[in-house]
Structure to design on (401 residues):
């Protein structure tokens, strides 16, 4: 049920609980009386992403810096037409995953941190002012990576908010930026090395959360350590803007920047076993091929439709949807009518091979997985490039979403 009227924090938490109980699919939009906005995206009653807040790009950069240090975030670009999409940050994560620049595990951590941070901000604002909430069934977030329980998120956020409040920080917002307001007084109270650190860091360019990442600490102890100086007026907290979105340059109205199309074949593996996926992933990437792994067979069809791989490895025995059923479903879709589909199984019986032919699979390999056996099959159906050339091309391309 939507609540366009203003409500308090307790009623807002009940709305989150209700969305979980009814296994809600869609978006829950929250707006505070002072203009702050957040959106929480649900799939089957679980929060799979969140957007909005004061500094979406700062938040995205912090997460990338902390959890994906191998990435050059200065190369991240958005198509101009996509800057208005609320979940541009999530879409960019998916592009990076598709290009094998981020792992599923890295994205999962970023998703969970983003949701927790925005829930905390929402709770802090709702503790100060009234909010309204509304459900939208129009948004279906593509390819959710994380299906963490909303109840778990709420418990974590309530614990964080309790610790923040008990530290005397209830009225201090972590997206505020500390500025050294009275340097002379500070110089008299701290050592010269501490003073130099304060001068270099407390310049109004970094929020409390930004400083936490720079100092490799949690935001709570950092803010608590600054509190005495804030109370004395030596440090002042100010609001600062978010970074501008990284938009790909448009030279004229007819030629917008577009991602460079890759000729490197994309190989998909649908297998509920992480070990098998990892083995095949290593074989594919070593041979210069792009790779996508799908461990949830229920999500396999929409993911395959989105990415359109050049060859699919399909496990035979999986929960809920087995390889035969999924192969038959794929063959009924025109996009996959001619796509090579290779059944992977631990059984090498005659009946299994006959059934694989009945559902029009292209080939059949047995476990244990051997690199030479797998690559012999792959080379029959796709052109395998030089690994060194492929990696070089992918690393020099800007990521445009």
């Amino acid at each position: 049920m939507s609540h366009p009227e203003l409500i308090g924090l307790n009623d807002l938490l009940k709305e989150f609980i209700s969305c979980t109980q009814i296994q809600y699919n869609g978006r829950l939009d929250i707006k505070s009386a002072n203009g702050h906005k957040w959106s929480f995206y649900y799939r089957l009653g679980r929060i799979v992403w969140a957007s909005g807040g004061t500094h979406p790009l700062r938040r995205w950069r912090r997460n990338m810096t902390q959890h994906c240090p191998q990435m050059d975030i200065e190369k991240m670009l958005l198509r101009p037409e996509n800057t208005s999409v609320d979940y541009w940050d999530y879409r960019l994560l998916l592009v990076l995953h598709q290009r094998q620049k981020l792992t599923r595990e890295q994205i999962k951590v970023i998703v969970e941190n983003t949701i927790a941070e925005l829930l905390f901000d929402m709770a802090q604002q709702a503790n100060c002012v009234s909010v309204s909430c509304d459900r939208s069934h129009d948004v279906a977030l593509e390819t959710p990576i994380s299906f963490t329980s909303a109840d778990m998120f709420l418990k974590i956020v309530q614990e964080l908010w309790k610790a923040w409040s008990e530290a005397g920080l209830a009225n201090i917002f972590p997206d505020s930026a500390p500025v050294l307001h009275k340097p002379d007084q500070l110089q008299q109270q701290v050592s010269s090395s501490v003073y130099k650190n304060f001068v270099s860091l407390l310049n109004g360019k970094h929020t409390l959360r930004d400083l936490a990442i720079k100092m490799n600490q949690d935001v709570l102890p950092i803010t608590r350590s600054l509190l005495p100086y804030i109370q004395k007026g030596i440090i002042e907290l100010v609001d600062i803007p978010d970074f501008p979105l990284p938009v790909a340059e448009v030279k004229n109205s007819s030629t917008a920047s577009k991602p460079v199309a890759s000729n490197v074949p994309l190989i998909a593996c649908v297998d509920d076993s992480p070990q098998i996926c990892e083995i095949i992933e290593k074989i594919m990437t070593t041979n210069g091929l792009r790779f996508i792994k799908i461990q949830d067979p229920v999500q396999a069809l929409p993911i395959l439709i989105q990415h359109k791989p050049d060859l699919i490895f399909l496990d035979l025995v999986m929960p809920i949807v087995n390889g035969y059923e999924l192969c038959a479903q794929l063959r009924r879709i025109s996009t996959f009518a001619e796509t090579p589909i290779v059944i992977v199984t631990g059984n090498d019986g005659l009946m299994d091979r006959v059934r694989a032919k009945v559902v029009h699979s292209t080939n059949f390999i047995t476990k244990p997985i051997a690199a030479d056996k797998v690559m012999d099959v792959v080379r029959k159906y796709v052109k395998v490039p030089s690994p060194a050339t492929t990696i070089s091309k992918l690393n020099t391309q800007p990521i445009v979403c």
